[in-house]
Amino acid sequence: MTEEATPSWEDVARIYGRKIYNFAYRLTGNPDDAADLVQEVLLRVRKGLASYVPGSFDGWLWRITRNAFLDDVRKRNRRPTSPLPEDERNLAIASPSPDEVLASVRLSEDIQSALLKVPLDFRECVVLCDVVGLTYEEIAEAVEAPVGTVRSRIHRGRKMLREMLTWPV
Amino acid sequence: MARVKSSSGCATAELVSAYLDGELRSGELDIVVEHLSRCGDCIAEFHQLREIRAGLRTLPFLEIPERLLPDSHPGEQLSAYLDGQLSTAEHDFVISHLDFCTDCRLELHELDAARTAVRSLPGLEPPEFLSVQRERIERERWTRRRVVAAGLGVAAAATLVFVTLGPSSDPAGDIDINPFFDQHQARMSVESGINMLPAFAPGPTP
């Protein structure tokens, strides 16, 4: 939705609400915190739409989302958002299980736990890229950093994840 | 070109992820492809990053809670809103919703009216039969206290008489206090305003 007419608040909630929720959940690891963040973002969007100048809507929206998240983090004084696994060794991916569903759930939990250990600057870029599906340019606009910085953060974030997860190659 | 070396020592660190994401700049693609064709370490890193990337991209995409969508209404949050019992985020969300939802504004108005009506109900006096019952209980309690006090007074007086006069063999000297006690008890049951029995005891008949 770039360079288009300004959407209504309801449209933003319907079209982007789920993405914002997933972004928030992957960053916080907590459904309640994620829901609160979505509410806060939609509120800011609603207030901000009045003064929104048509341009890159995605960049504008994700900048709001990211700032709302950072404000929340500051407000909570960077308290842990989710219990982490008891031991990093438990992050190791289990051997392929006959039950693929269970294995998939385990994989998701392991990745989520590892994500929460990645420093925020890197985590948000990885999540915006791999969960939300933004391009590097859109991420750069959202996090207000050069594209080169975004590229570096995504790469380093993934490498941190790789080091935390015992990954079968 | 990449400026950060990878764990393999090659100057392709950031290019591997960007290659996976299709985000290489002009001229970088050939460099990466050429490098990957001859560097085993970077190929291994490429495979690992590809797995990580795939794992991230297959994380389940969660459904957003319905209550967060504009089509859903605050519902029971409205009462909590009236009572000031919402979190800040919930409060702001309800305010925001009320801004455009006529139905919820109307519902809020009705809830507020009901709440006000309940809160303005007068405090009632207890029914008459409860008052009578309470007075009777109160009276019986006082009576019991007076009987005990009378008993103690009579006993004290009898002791005093016995000690003063000593045992007598004269039957006329015996004092039967029971009639006094009964008389006094009967009086106390009909008279009000007497809180303490006088230390009353008849002395010996002159």
Protein architecture, described:
The complex is a heterodimer of chains A (169) and B (206). With 169 residues, chain A is mainly alpha-helical. Chain A has one domain: Orthogonal Bundle (Arc Repressor Mutant, subunit A), CATH 1.10.10. Chain A has helices at 9-28, 31-48, 57-75, 100-115, 120-132, 136-143, 147-164. In chain A, helix 6 crosses helix 7 (147-164). Chain A is globular. Chain B has three domains: 13-57, no CATH class; 66-119, no CATH class; 128-190, no CATH class. Chain B is an all-alpha fold and 206 residues long. Mean pLDDT of chain B is 76; it is low at 1-5 and 191-206. At the A-B interface, helix 1, helix 2, helix 4, helix 5 and helix 7 of A face helix 1, helix 3 and helix 5 of B.
Task: Produce a short descriptive summary.
With 169 residues, chain A is an all-alpha fold. Chain A is built from seven helices and no strands.
Keywords:
A: 169 residues; mainly alpha; Arc Repressor Mutant, subunit A; B: 3 domains; disordered N terminus
Secondary structure elements and their pairing?
The complex is a heterodimer of chains A (169) and B (206).
Chain A: H1 9-28, H2 31-48, H3 57-75, H4 100-115, H5 120-132, H6 136-143, H7 147-164
Helix pairs in contact in A: 1-2, 1-5, 2-3, 3-6, 5-7, 6-7
Chain B: H1 13-20, H2 28-36, H3 40-57, H4 77-82, H5 88-100, H6 102-119, H7 128-165, H8 178-190
Helix pairs in contact in B: 7-8
